[in-house]
């Protein structure tokens, strides 16, 4: 049994699909020619079929130029100069197919790489790709590719990138397990919005699991069991069934109000990463979107998304949400989220470096495209623009002014812009929590980003499972920062939400309610459970409990107090 961190609730039993690139070790040996040729030809067919499937799945997601790369790969596999020479070498020298493949490929790669014309130099990369795939098939090694999965599996990986997660087909991906990461790493967050059970931060996972092993993934108690005994299988299949039944029973909360027993109303809204996630928010009774992480638009692309691409995405979300508020966060890139096509400076501490609003204020060209797209889309619903990682009032003022200038520019061009969008900020740096009363004079709203606020308050990397014990949102120190932020907003008649993972935590919600939080934004899959809890509590009691919690000294004491109060 391998322990990890339960990141997205559920229990599943399925085979492991290991997302790990195989390493190839090729040595020359003499071999049975006919057998090698047959293996080689079969591998060639499989290679061609893979490329065709990957290309078909990519249609609509990639540009025509990018799709053309797959055609180039298919052409390589059909080129008699290339594959013909391999066959010849196997026959003439009676050697193994993988070795012949490597020899011939290297010859072409060297030839192309030394050419002056950049077009031909790029062909070397095509040959490398095709030859790697071909060699893997010859050797019977599986090259993992999420778009090729066609049976129910649990994905096992070191980590999953947002674009990996975006490719997951929910019909086949029953769950996933990763070696690194914590509850607030981005793979965990995506798992929750896709409602796929996930356990992350499992030490030694890749060493202990083989492709095809039978796995139990228990993302309630946070572990993975490898090749379980029959009675364990039975036990966990039942646990999975009970979990599914519990989930179904919560559906009656979908249209209920988010209101306490003594009639205090709050808003329960969803966090999304892509326009597709809106469906999950609506089907789980979300009253709005409290955080749209727009960086996924940038991370799933091979170049900066255009104004038109962005406008379409924002418009879709706003239209689907109707009159409900939609908080769109401007680009929050950097830290653990980098872009292949945008070089970042090398820094010792990227989480403390050039990222988010710092980058946007430094790159008005990038920020302008997003500001224009957002404001153009503003007429389709209730837009709230939110800046990430604000540390000083100077930054907030500059970002707000940038939006207001863009607004003027668009109107001068005769383009319609809404008159009542809001401009707010995330509070995820302790400095802005402490100075919240001042920020509230100029911001329309706050949303507390506890994933980062905890990381920066505790000086504990949110990606590191070694210091995961310091992820303590219920530590009284954090509760005091949260209280300052909420009180700061209310002192100026502004609203305060929370979009960090803490907002959907069953033990945290009662305290946050008592502290006066107005809006709770969470993974869609947590909304119904939280609504049920809110409806069972008295605001008056939770206020008294929260006051007490602020005076305690450890997270453990707070947890005990909450458990005794709900
Ligand atoms: C946060 O920091 O709490 C937050 C919501 O933003 P992200 O997780 O995207 O950094
Ligand atoms: Mg953050």
Characterise the protein shown here.
The chain has 566 residues and is α/β, with parallel strands linked by helices. The protein has three domains: 2-20 and 145-226, Phosphohistidine domain (Glucose Oxidase, domain 1, 3-Layer(bba) Sandwich), CATH 3.50.30.10; 33-139, Orthogonal Bundle (Enzyme I, Chain A, domain 2); 267-505 and 518-527, TIM Barrel (Alpha-Beta Barrel), CATH 3.20.20.60. It is built from 23 helices and 16 strands. The strands form two sheets. Strands 1-8-7-3-4-5-6-2 form an eight-stranded mixed beta sheet. An eight-stranded parallel beta barrel has the order 9-10-11-12-13-14-15-16, surrounded by four helices. Strand 9, helix 10 and strand 10 (289-293) form a beta-alpha-beta unit. The site of magnesium ion has 5 residues, from helix 18. Magnesium ion binds at residues 388, 428, 449, 451-452.
Assembly type: single chain
Any guess at the CATH architecture of the largest domain?
Alpha-Beta Barrel
- Which structural class is indicated by helix and strand composition? alpha/beta
- Can you count the beta strands? 16
- Give the averaged pLDDT, no decimals: 93
- Termini Cα gap: 33 Å
CATH superfamily of the largest domain: Phosphoenolpyruvate-binding domains
Summarize the biggest pleated sheet: 8 strands, mixed
Q: What are the low-pLDDT stretches, counting only 5+ consecutive residues below 50? A: none
- Give the strand order of the largest sheet, numbering strands 1, 2, ... along the chain: 1-8-7-3-4-5-6-2
CATH class of the largest domain: Alpha Beta
């Amino acid at each position: 049994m391998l322990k990890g961190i339960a990141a997205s609730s559920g229990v599943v039993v399925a085979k492991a699909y290991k997302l790990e690139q195989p390493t190839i070790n090729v040595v020359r040996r003499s071999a049975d020619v006919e057998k090698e040729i047959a293996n080689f030809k079969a591998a060639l067919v499989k290679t061609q079929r893979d490329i065709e499937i990957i290309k078909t799945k990519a249609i609509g997601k990639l540009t025509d130029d990018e799709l053309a790369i797959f055609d180039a790969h298919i052409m390589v596999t059909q080129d008699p100069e290339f594959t013909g020479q391999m066959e010849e070498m196997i026959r003439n020298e009676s050697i193994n197919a993988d070795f012949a493949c490597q020899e011939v490929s290297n010859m072409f790669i060297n030839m192309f790489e030394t050419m002056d014309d950049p077009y031909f130099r790029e062909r070397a990369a095509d040959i490398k790709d095709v030859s790697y795939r071909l060699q893997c098939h010859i050797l019977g090694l599986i090259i993992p590719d999420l778009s090729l999965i066609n049976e129910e599996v649990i994905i096992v990986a070191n980590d999953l990138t947002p674009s990996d997660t975006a490719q997951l087909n929910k019909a086949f991906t029953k769950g996933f397990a990763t070696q690194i990461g914590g509850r607030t790493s981005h793979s965990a967050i995506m798992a929750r919005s896709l409602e796929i059970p996930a356990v992350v931060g499992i030490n030694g996972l890749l060493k202990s699991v083989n492709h095809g092993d039978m796995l139990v993934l228990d993302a309630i108690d946070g572990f993975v069991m490898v090749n379980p005994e029959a009675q364990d299988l039975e036990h966990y299949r039942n646990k999975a069934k009970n979990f599914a039944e519990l989930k179904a029973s919560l559906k009656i909360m979908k249209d209920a109000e988010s209101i306490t027993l003594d009639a205090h109303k709050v808003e329960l809204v969803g966090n999304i990463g892509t326009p597709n996630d809106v469906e999950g928010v609506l089907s789980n009774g979300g009253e709005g979107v409290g955080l749209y992480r727009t960086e996924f638009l940038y991370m799933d692309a091979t170049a900066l998304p255009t104004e038109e691409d962005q406008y379409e995405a924002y418009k879709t979300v706003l239209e689907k949400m109707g009159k409900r508020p939609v908080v769109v966060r401007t680009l929050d890139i950097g830290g653990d989220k980098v872009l292949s096509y945008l070089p970042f400076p090398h820094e010792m501490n990227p989480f403390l470096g050039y990222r988010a609003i710092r980058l946007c204020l430094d790159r008005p060209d990038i920020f302008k495209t997003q500001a224009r797209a957002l404001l153009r889309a503003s007429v389709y619903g209730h837009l709230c623009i939110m800046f990430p990682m604000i540390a000083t009032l100077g930054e907030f003022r500059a970002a707000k002014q940038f939006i207001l200038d863009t607004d003027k520019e668009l109107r001068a061009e005769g383009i319609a812009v809404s008159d009542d969008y809001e401009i707010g900020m995330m509070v995820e740096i302790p400095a802005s929590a402490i100075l919240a009363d001042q920020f509230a004079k100029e911001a329309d709203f706050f949303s507390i980003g506890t994933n980062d606020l905890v990381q920066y308050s505790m000086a504990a990397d949110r990606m590191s499972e070694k210091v995961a014990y310091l992820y303590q949102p219920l530590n009284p120190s954090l509760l005091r920062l949260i209280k300052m932020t909420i009180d700061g907003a209310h002192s100026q008649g502004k609203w305060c939400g929370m979009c960090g993972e803490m907002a959907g935590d069953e033990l945290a919600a009662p305290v946050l309610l008592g502290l006066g939080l107005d809006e709770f934004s969470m993974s869609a899959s947590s909304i119904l459970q939280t609504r049920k809890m809110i409806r069972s509590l008295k605001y008056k009691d939770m206020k008294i409990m929260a006051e007490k919690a602020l005076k305690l000294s450890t997270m453990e004491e707070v947890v005990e107090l909450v458990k005794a109060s709900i």
